[in-house]
Hints:
The complex is a heterodimer of chains A (about 260) and B (about 325).
Chain A: H1 9-14, E1 19-28, E2 31-41, E3 46-50, H2 57-65, E4 72-77, E5 80-81, H3 87-92, E6 95-97, H4 110-123, H5 126-131, H6 135-152, H7 168-180, E7 186-190, H8 201-213, E8 217-221, H9 225-231, E9 234-239, E10 242-247, H10 249-253, H11 256-263
Parallel strand pairs in A: 3-8, 3-9, 6-7, 7-8
Antiparallel strand pairs in A: 1-2, 1-4, 4-5, 9-10
Chain B: H1 2-28, H2 36-52, H3 73-93, H4 100-120, H5 122-125, H6 139-142, H7 146-172, H8 175-185, H9 187-192, H10 197-223, H11 235-246, H12 251-265, H13 280-299, H14 316-323
Amino acid sequence: MLAPSIDRPSSMTAQPALLAVRDLTVDYGGVRAVGGITLHVGRGEIVGLIGPNGAGKSSALNAISGDVPASGGTVVLNGRDVTRLAAYRRSRLGLGRTFQTAKVFEGLTVYEGLVTAVRGASGASLWQTIIGRGRRLEEEQAGERAWRMLDQAGLDHIADLFGRELSGGQRRFVDLTLALIKEPQMLVLDEPMVGVAPSLVPRLLNQLRSVAAQGTGILIVEHALEVVAALCDRVVVMAAGQVIAQGTYDEIAADTEVRRAYLS
Amino acid sequence: MSAFVSISLVYLAIYTLSAWSLNLQYGYAGIINFGWIVFQSIGAYVAATTALGSPTSGGFQTYIFGARLGFPLPLIMGTLAGAALALLLGLIILTRRIRPDFQAIIMLVVAIIAAEVVSTNTALFNGANGLSNVPQPFNGVMHLSYNNYQWFFVAFSFALCIIVYFGLEWICRSSWGRALRAMREDDILASHVGINVQALRIVVFVIGGAIAGFSGALLVEFLGTWSPDAWSFVESFVVFVSVYVGGRANNRGAIIGAFLVPVVFGTMPSFLPEFGYPGLSANLEWLVIAALWLTTFYLRPAGILPEGRFIARRTRAREQAPVMPPIAKQGSVA
């Protein structure tokens, strides 16, 4: 029996979606990990992507961020079709992401990593390094920005630590900060609470809320349902590569299809 | 004795340039270029043929690109040849589709095939006999004795090394060098902070190739000869060991590596009295170099001069902000 999935297209028509994913499919060889999902995230909206293991959540996320190629469908970021664009182009268009196992630059200090993230493409251009005017100013501004992020978190003492010297929680912080420091319009988070001390979870939730309050859209894959319930405006449920339900947390918690997918 | 010292010093300069080239590609950018020697070699060949003159003028050697260019054009041509080959091979090999370890193997295979092709095809660079009688820069005009010319070349190559050193240090310590290291550490994360990793790889590969070609050009101008014997694929590993022993991503370490590995330990076995079968003591060079590599792995895994830690300094304004209470200036509204 098909339970009617809960969708609210009204919120999509109210304002153009920041991220619009349509019929997205991802194949690995002959295996179809994502079988044509459609979802959208609006400005300032926090959308949770949940589902049992192997549902295709991470594959969908990787296709949205450009880490795996989509074999079908479209990804539209801020009105622009980015489906065929490489990850670095999506990053320049305002898409930030974090990783399931927190990624940091192991052999760079935290400060260097953050400054690299602020400078982005201009810092990696040999041409601008050689002839660039205002290069020093750009470096200084990037440095100040890095200090501000570290100060805000009360972590200025880790500035000179190599990425490989960080604790699990610090890695999470740096991973998120690398994505946040350029103030992305759209943020894609892959299980950001894993490895974070329970006492720090509320602080992280507040940080994400304040990021969203400034207009950034957030798509978050998370297994901890209490986090999803506390944080997300809307929840998209995936199972076996398909979206099986969308709605508020309370709506999808009552959905029989969702319950069956999680229990089976 | 004087000749021995001067020749060793020229070799030190050449091997230092070599180590810098590979250090840029491998130490900073993480590209495992097992075919490094090919880039030095093409620089040497092109510098030789562009200095030798046209092969049709009744010479005993056959080669391509023959021209008689005055100094410093052969050096520049050799440098450009290294860069051009790096661009070509980089575009083919350093793609996203090929995993980095396979890229390394492909480079190695390219080096082996290139040596085979150049040895057997005499039309390219005179085959296995190689090129000889390459004119030495300024030797015709300065009328120096053999010894004095050697010392002149020492000064000349050291001066070039100093220029290359400062250029390299400048770009390696810039935001560009930091982006290289970010890419080396994690190319996926680097691309998510907006760095075009593919393009950056090609650019650094070409610069490394140019320095390799330059080192080859300088070497052939000094030696006057260049043949496939001089660039067997194992020569790449001598340079790799230099970078490892000196310290990856450290240009001063590369100087130490170039001094210790090929110049000191590499030539030491040739001073031993001949023993065993003919050529045994010469081949001990490889044993010594391998032992040096392993010893470094155990004792100093990051090399003699490891990559340093960057200590961030706050700009003055930020340092003072928390310490100094805001003081209303005279005449200010506040």
